[in-house]
Amino acid sequence: MGPRRTVTDEWGRVVDLRLVDLAVATAQVAALPAGVERQSVTVAREAGMRLVLLKLRGGSALEDHAAPGAMTIHVLAGAVRFIVGGAALEAPAGKVLLLEAGALHAVEAEADSILLLTIADGGRPALVEG
Questions:
Q1: Which CATH code is given to the segment(s) 4-120?
Q2: Which residue, 88, 33, 82, is CA-closest to 55?
Q3: Tens-digit pLDDT profile for residues 21-62
Q4: Which end of the chain has the lower number of beta carbons within 10 A, N or C?
């Protein structure tokens, strides 16, 4: 994880800030041992969300599954195919998929790939003032 800093915002609320070094986190999942098709590391877990880096070996797949909260899947390296509702979406590095909470989806790695998942906790949204 990264260094934490606490600040007070314009509304007088105390806010925790943290920078995450994706290069360090990516190095943790980059080398897959022989015979291992995927590996993940939770980069950050905060109230309401978590960040997960996932490395998939080319040719591997994650069968249909769903997350309890809305999520984004950012393809940092490689290329994957998302299958949602029978539709296939090709996603090379640099693409981001946004999924609603509970959306059933599968992922096929077309090449060795690294994905950054941002997953909401699926709870009720926080009230935003302003």
A1: 2.60.120.10
A2: 33
A3: 888 888 877 776 778 888 888 888 887 888 999 999 999 999
A4: C
